[in-house]
Amino acid sequence: MAEAQIILSHGRESGIVAVASGERYQWAHTALAESGFQRDDDGVWHLPADGTQATVVDLLKCAKRHRTSVNMSSRRFIGDAARDLARLLPGQWHASVEVYSHPAWQEDLVPWIWDSGELGRAVRSERIPYAALLTNPVQGTTLLFIERPGRQLDYLVGAFSPEGLEGGYGDPHAPRGIVLPPYAGPSAQALTGRYLPAYEQAVHARRTAAIAAVLGDIRREHDTWQAMNASGRYSDATPLSAAALGASTELFLDHAWHRFLTVVDHAPALLERCRPASSPWPDDAVALARLADAVIDAEGLVDEIVHGGFVPDQERRARAWPAIETWLTDGEAFLRQARISAPHRRPALPVAAPARPLTAAPPAHRRP
Fold it and tell me: In this structure, are residues 70 and 63 in contact, taking their beta carbons and an 8 Å threshold?
């Protein structure tokens, strides 16, 4: 691949658009600027309204002087394709363009792509100079939309890791991105009927697994702390002083609180789905009510720490422990209810408008 490259495509509203790519992308920027192209906030260069075919000819000559290759894409501008798709998806979706001119910028995506299929492999191994993001701020969902490498028409779409849930390519809970056809209508049907339900199921499973792991870690540390207190000795049989006992208690409570924040972040969404009355364990309703109250108390403490000013460590430990203890006591009831309340696949929703062709006949990753 050339050290500097300009990729031209056709934009519905602005005509010819250009993206600079390559380790020496600055050379391409210079050629575009000298040829009269104007750069927008997304890093995409546009032919000015009064531009002519002569401007493109000038660009070819100027690019040659700056050792930059120029290629015309067979597809239309990816921003137009993404916006057409976003308009047909149910809910509030916003489309934006990201440019990864330098190959290293693309690497920033790798830890955040939550995918177990072709999209994740493409981001890791194929050159992707630009992409579009499809974002639903209400649901907190962000999708990556790219041109399928090595294909003339298809697209790939997959998700970024949900906020607060680390896990990139290869995460066993990650959904598998899908191939989209070059038409907005069928693409919207595929997303609403196949991918988004699978994504929702994956998020539910990932949140449940995260809480199970946290409760297991806290319980193991709690058992160790209890055993040490009961024996009055460290694990190597060294006598435990009163000062050391107090310090170990504080350390345990601090570690438990730090881990418990994962429960505070993700339990509310899972608790909303739980329907104990229709489960094999209807009596879990009482335990779930206690757990919900404990989360509310913990949320209040977090809010006070973040927005209300200083909360002394001793007070924070005293207030946090009852919530943590409640979850240690009733956590198993929550986990069995959460596991059987996973969302099911829903019928594909009708698109909002007739199908439109997608081709012509980031936590952003923008750089200067």
Answer: yes
HSE-up (13 A, CA, CB side) for residue 264? 18
Give yes or no for a contact between 17 and 47, defined as CB atoms under 8 angstroms apart: yes
Q: How confident is the model at residue 202 (pLDDT cuts 50, 70, 90)?
A: very high
What SS3 state is found at 155? strand
Q: Can you tell me the distance from the alpha carbon of 218 to that of 220, in angstroms, rounded to the nearest whole number? A: 5
Residue type, 163: E
The partner residues of 158 in beta bridges, in order of sequence, read 144
Range scoring the smallest mean pLDDT among 181-185, 286-290, 324-328: 181-185
- How far is the CA of 9 from the CAs of 79, 179, 181, in angstroms? 11, 21, 19
- β pairing state of 69-76 and 113-114: unpaired
Q: Which residues of 316-337 are buried (b: 16+ CB within 10 A; e: fewer)?
A: bbebbbebbebbbebbebbbbb
Task: Tell me the β-bridge partners of 238.
Answer: none
- Give CA–CA dist 204/171, Å, rounded: 14
- Strands in 5-11's sheet, in edge-to-edge order, are 38-39, 45-46, 15-21, 5-11, 69-76
